[in-house]
Every structure is written in C-alpha cells, then in structure tokens.
C-alpha cells in the first residue's frame, strides 16, 4: 500500500513548552485513520526531560568508558570487527573530551549496561538541545501517545493513530524483536543496552523503534510506518541526527548552540502518514510553521 507523507513543520519546541505547535495544525489537516508519528525528542523536551551534562563530573569509570572503551576499543577493534557503520566508526575515533561527562550521565541515570554501548546510549539525544543540555527519552511514551490521540479526538472528532518513535535500532532474530533502548512497544524486548547492540550486528536491523502507540498495532505495521518517517526525515536538509551534523546545519559547535540558533531553522518533529486507498500520483503536502 502506498502512503501520502504530510510533514508538520514548526519552530523549536523549548523545555516545558506544550505541543500546541504540533497538534494545532494536525487538528486542521488530519483525517480519520491517519497516523501521526512524532519523534521522541520534542516529546521529551516538552516534558522537561533535559539535563545539563556540565552538572556531571566524570569519574574514573566514565573516563575509561569514553576514551579507552568507546574511542579506542570500539573505534579501532570491535567496530571494524563487527562491521558497524563506517560513519559510526569515524565518529567514535573523534570522540571529544566532553564525552566523559556524557558517559557519567548515562552511568548515573541508566546504568552500566547502557554506558557500555559505544554510542547512542539509552536514546539520549545530544543534537537537539541548546548548549550542554541533552534530552532523555520521554516518560511513559505509551501514555503520551494515547493522551495525544484523545486530545485530537475530543477536539476534532477525528480518529488518529499516534506513534512515538526513536531512530535507534530495533533488531530481529527469527520472530523475536529486541532493542537496547529502555522502552519500546510490545512485543519488542527493550532495555537490553549493549547486549542488544552487539547481538544486533549478527541479526537483522529492522529500523527505527516505536516507543509508544495510541492503539493496538502489529509490530510489522508499526515498524513500516516508523521507517517511512525516518527515511523522509533523513533527507531533510535540516536533519540533525548526530552532534556532528549540528555544526553543518547551524554553523555552530554543539556546546555553543542557543535556542535562537535552533529557532533559525524549520523543524519537522512530526509527520502524518496517510494510506492511499486508490493509486494516484505521489504527492507530498506540507504544513509550514506559523510566522511570528
């Protein structure tokens, strides 16, 4: 089945700000049975789930994990041996001193099994928050998805299926799905940390991870929808999926990024996916952010 992709563009959603920038356009353009797919970062930031890594002084364990373990052992031995992405290996070999504080954050908030993962630990996002702030995963994404769907239903009488996703991978072995992320929808086995990352190199990477869903949905359908959205967002010129893409998009080092910088570009925190019942020419609609 083909799909229409309708991106929702906004300016930057700040910590503790509500999601009106996303939801108000959706009320106008959504149709029954659409899928509203929202990235995890704006949800987490709106919940205030951000921490300042400068508040964390790295201990010996964090220093070892950042430099010896991630930069050298993974960057020069395990990474090439397991055949992980060339870009990931290059990024590991360029890990800055600040990565020590990041490992301390992961250790304190999520524990060793996540800190042992060489990159993208526990779904912490370093690239879409100002300065030295980073965003954690949303709290209870399943509950959030259902709350958003109910708001849309109550406000517009439209039945919209809401998915919250993370670009960190889900893997598949036979009929078993698993991810290193702390949470995911059923039947994905979550919170596996570095074990999932290592095992995943030997099995199938099935793409982005659905974290929460407002309705019952098959894992195959959830993954398909999530990957359509990820593929679309990856080709956007403003996509900042790693800290290394921040300077390319904003022209500033991550630690010097301000909210004004983040507001200077269009963000696409959500996408509506609409199933096409009848074959027709491919089309893409676009909702522009409101001008101040």
Description:
By secondary structure, this protein is of the alpha+beta class. The protein has eleven helices and eight strands. Strands 1, 2, 5, 6, 7 and 8 form a six-stranded mixed beta sheet that branches. A two-stranded antiparallel sheet has the order 3-4. The relative contact order is 0.21.
In whole angstroms, how far apart are the ends?
Answer: 38 Å
Low-confidence stretches: none
User: Rounded to an integer, what's the Rg over CA atoms?
Assistant: 19 Å
Beta-strand share of residues: 15-25%
The amount of helix comes to: 25-40%
The biggest sheet amounts to: 6 strands, mixed
Keywords:
single chain, 292 residues, alpha+beta, six-stranded mixed beta sheet, 11 helices, 8 strands, globular
Topology, please?
Layout: E1 3-10, H1 20-29, E2 35-39, H2 40-46, E3 50-52, H3 60-82, H4 86-93, H5 99-110, H6 112-115, E4 133-135, H7 141-156, E5 161-173, E6 176-179, H8 193-200, E7 204-213, H9 219-234, H10 246-250, H11 259-263, E8 267-275
Parallel strand pairs: 2-5
Antiparallel strand pairs: 1-8, 2-8, 3-4, 5-6, 5-7
Helix pairs in contact: 1-7, 3-4, 3-5
């Amino acid at each position: 089945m083909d799909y229409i992709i309708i991106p929702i563009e906004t300016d930057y959603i700040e910590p503790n700000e509500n999601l009106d920038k996303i939801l108000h356009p959706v009320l106008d353009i959504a149709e029954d049975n659409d899928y509203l797919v929202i990235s995890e970062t704006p949800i987490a930031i709106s919940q205030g789930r951000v921490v300042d890594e400068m508040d964390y002084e790295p201990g010996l364990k964090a220093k070892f994990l950042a430099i010896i373990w991630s930069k050298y052992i993974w960057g020069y031995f395990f990474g090439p041996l397991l055949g992980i992405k060339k870009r990931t290996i290059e990024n590991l070999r360029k890990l800055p001193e600040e990565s020590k504080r990041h490992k301390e954050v992961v250790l304190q908030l999520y524990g060793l099994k996540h800190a042992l993962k060489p990159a993208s630990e526990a779904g912490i996002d370093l690239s879409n928050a100002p300065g030295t702030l980073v965003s954690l995963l949303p709290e209870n994404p399943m509950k959030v998805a259902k709350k958003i769907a109910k708001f849309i239903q109550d406000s517009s009488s439209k039945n919209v299926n809401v998915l919250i996703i993370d670009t960190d991978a889900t893997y598949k072995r036979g009929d078993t799905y698993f991810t290193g992320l702390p949470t995911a929808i059923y039947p994905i086995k979550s919170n596996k940390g570095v074990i999932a990352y290592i095992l995943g190199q030997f099995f199938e990477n099935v793409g982005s991870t659905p974290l929460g869903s407002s309705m019952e949905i098959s894992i195959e359908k959830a993954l398909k929808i999530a990957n359509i959205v990820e593929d679309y967002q990856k080709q956007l010129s403003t996509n900042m999926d790693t800290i290394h893409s921040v300077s390319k998009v904003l022209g500033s080092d991550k630690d010097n990024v301000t909210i004004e910088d983040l507001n200077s570009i269009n963000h696409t925190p959500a996408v509506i996916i609409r199933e096409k019942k009848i074959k027709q020419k491919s089309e893409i609609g676009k909702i522009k952010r409101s001008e101040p």
